[in-house]
Amino acid sequence: MPKNPDAEKNNPCLKEQNLVHKCLNQNNYDNTQCELYFTNYKNCKDFWYRVQRDRRSQGKYPYMPEIADRDQIKQEYMKTKPTV
Questions:
Q1: Long-range contacts of 23-30 (CB under 8 A, 24+ apart)
Q2: Model confidence pLDDT, tens digit, residues 3-58
Q3: Torsions phi, psi for 20 (to 5 deg)
């Protein structure tokens, strides 16, 4: 089965998703061994959902930023994120 050429374009968390699958494969599908990967994947999905929602409300299209723009968006977010 050929790899989906639009997978990265449509799923900004593809890397995190692949890491979850890899962890599950390595740990005989024991979810407790991969909780950190699940949390990271969920955080990624939540972040990009908020980005899409904000872009939609601002009338920007496409709602999901292009691959080339994603690093800049993450960097801008990190600048506004409060330090702990």
A1: none
A2: 788 898 999 999 999 999 999 999 999 999 999 999 999 999 999 999 999 999 99
A3: -65, -45
DSSP 50-79: HHHHHHHHTT-SSSSPPHHHHHHHHHHHHH
What tokens does 30 get?
């024991």
**Which position has the token pair 């998703």?**
17
Task: Give which of 4, 3, 17, 6 is closest to 67, Cα–Cα.
Answer: 6
Residue 26 token pair:
């390595």
The C-alpha atoms of residue 70 and residue 48 are separated, in whole angstroms, by: 9
Query: Taking the model in full, what pTM does it have?
Result: 0.85
67 token code pair: 């691959």
The whole-angstrom separation of Cα 80 and Cα 76 is 7
